[in-house]
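Final report, Chapter 2: Outcomes

The project's central promise was a pipeline that accepts a single protein chain and returns its three-dimensional structure in a standardized token representation, suitable for archiving and comparison. That pipeline is now operational. To close this chapter, we reproduce one record exactly as it appears in the project archive, with the input sequence first and the structure output second.
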Amino acid sequence: MSMYREGYEYYLTKCEDFGLEPINFYYYVQQLSQEQLDQFNEQAREMKGRM
């Protein structure tokens, strides 16, 4: 879940940069595509394997 949180933090900074009102974390995760979710999960597996 920390990977999703990192992505959300990046999203928040970009919203701030452009003066946009961000959505909350729950809706952010709901709006991710299956491809994005798969990529996040793959990166998490790779990082876990390195530890």
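Archive annotation: The helical segments are 2-18, 25-30, 34-50.
This record, like all others produced under the grant, will remain available to the consortium after the project formally closes.
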